[in-house]
């Protein structure tokens, strides 16, 4: 009896490089290849392929940037080249990651099934602004997203955006959360810190945050919170990550009177600083596991990888109650509140906190954060309890469990 031919998947993302979407793209490529023939496609290779999967990679070689005319020309060139690539690979299903790839995927549709993966809130994303943001949310998404065979959101709270704001049929939209390499992360978290960094952790309770230094991650208020905390008790704050706000954040820290260590300046690492900017780390988890708290002040999220990985490390986590993501992870049986929370909420798997984005309430919200962090730092038993529960929670998001749902979806779409 002839062996059944494997179906062909084409996966599209605008660019590679460093980022949560690119990491998820890699995971999807690796896991789905176990059942399907997977080809990856990218608009260009301006950024290096930091997360290679080993699967075939097609570069459409269409640049980004330029003036309005250049962008329009490049957009339609991408549509034509993706359509040709779909024919070349004989794709049965084309899955796109990130908005730019979604548009091109939909406009190049032929006989293949199309699945979009929405990895973040569209309504709450402050980067979608101005005339172009209006065009995207009011015209392009409503007009194009309805053409998809399925739209997968990484958070349950993104689903109403797709259905209500963009008019997509409810039956086409479902949630499949991000997945995590639980065993790998936990294993890497056991690696000891270098002696000079361990000395920092040994002298005072340590808070760690891990994320890009970017507007979305909203780290600036965390510096004010930490400065207020230092007036009450000793502590250290460690940033793992880098980004476009590096100079702004280090400058703000110094303005607040904080002693700042910057790894890129190659200064001797000693316990004499207050705030430590450690840049990108090949193994961020070894910084998180021994910390007293993981703090996550993001302004908006999808289903945050950094928060989930901190939970795998067994960290007690304190996070903003973003419109999507953290509540599902820390308090899955509760609904998103109609009004933003203004007090700390001790959830089942961590602590949900007020957002730090509203100018009118910022001072009061920062005080709630400072009070809550101080309370947790004086209660090691509670930190241990929350950390153990957080680690247990992340067993719900292993690759095996999450990608079984992806296979079920793909098989369903293929027979429709």
From TrEMBL:
GO terms for molecular function: glycosyltransferase activity. The keyword Nucleus does not apply. Transmembrane segments: none annotated. Residues 19-184 form the Glycosyltransferase subfamily 4-like N-terminal domain. InterPro entries: Glyco_trans_4-like_N. Keywords: Transferase. PANTHER family: GLYCOSYLTRANSFERASE. This is Glycosyltransferase. It comes from Hymenobacter polaris. The lineage of its organism: Bacteria, Pseudomonadati, Bacteroidota, Cytophagia, Cytophagales.
């Amino acid at each position: 009896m002839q062996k059944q031919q494997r179906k062909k998947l084409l996966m599209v993302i605008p660019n590679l490089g460093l980022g949560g979407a690119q990491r998820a793209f890699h995971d999807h490529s690796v896991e789905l290849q176990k059942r399907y023939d997977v080809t990856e496609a990218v608009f260009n290779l301006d950024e290096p392929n930091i997360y290679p999967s080993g699967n075939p990679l097609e570069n459409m070689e269409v640049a980004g940037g330029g003036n309005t005319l250049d962008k329009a020309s490049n957009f339609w060139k991408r549509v034509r080249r993706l359509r040709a690539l779909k024919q070349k690979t004989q794709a049965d299903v084309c899955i796109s990651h990130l908005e730019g790839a979604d548009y091109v995927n939909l406009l190049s549709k032929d006989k293949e099934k199309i699945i979009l993966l929405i990895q973040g809130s569209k309504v709450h994303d402050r980067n979608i602004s101005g005339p172009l943001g209006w065009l995207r949310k009011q015209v392009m998404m409503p007009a194009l997203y309805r053409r998809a065979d399925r739209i997968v959101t990484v958070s349950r709270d993104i689903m109403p955006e797709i259905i209500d704001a963009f008019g997509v049929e409810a039956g086409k939209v479902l949630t499949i959360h991000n997945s995590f390499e639980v065993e790998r992360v936990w294993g890497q978290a056991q690696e000891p810190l270098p002696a000079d960094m361990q000395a920092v952790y040994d002298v005072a309770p340590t808070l760690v945050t891990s994320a890009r230094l970017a507007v979305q991650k909203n780290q600036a208020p965390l510096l004010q919170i930490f400065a207020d905390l230092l007036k009450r008790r000793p502590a250290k704050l460690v940033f793992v990550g880098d980004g476009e706000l590096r100079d702004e954040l280090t400058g703000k820290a110094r303005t607040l009177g904080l002693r700042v260590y910057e790894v890129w300046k190659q200064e001797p690492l000693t316990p004499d600083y207050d705030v430590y900017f450690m840049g990108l780390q090949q193994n961020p988890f070894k910084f998180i596991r021994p910390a007293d708290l993981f703090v996550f002040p993001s302004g908006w999220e999808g289903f945050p990888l950094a928060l989930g990985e901190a939970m795998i490390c067994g960290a007690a986590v304190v996070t903003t109650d973003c419109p999507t993501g953290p509540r599902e992870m820390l308090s899955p049986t509760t609904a998103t509140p109609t009004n933003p929370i203004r007090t700390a909420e001790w959830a089942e798997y961590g602590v949900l906190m007020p957002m730090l984005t509203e100018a009118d309430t910022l001072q009061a919200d920062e005080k709630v954060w400072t009070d809550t962090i101080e309370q947790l730092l004086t209660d090691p038993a509670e930190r241990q309890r929350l950390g153990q529960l957080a680690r247990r929670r992340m067993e719900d998001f292993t690759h095996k469990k999450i990608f079984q749902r992806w296979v079920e979806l793909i098989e369903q779409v293929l027979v429709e």
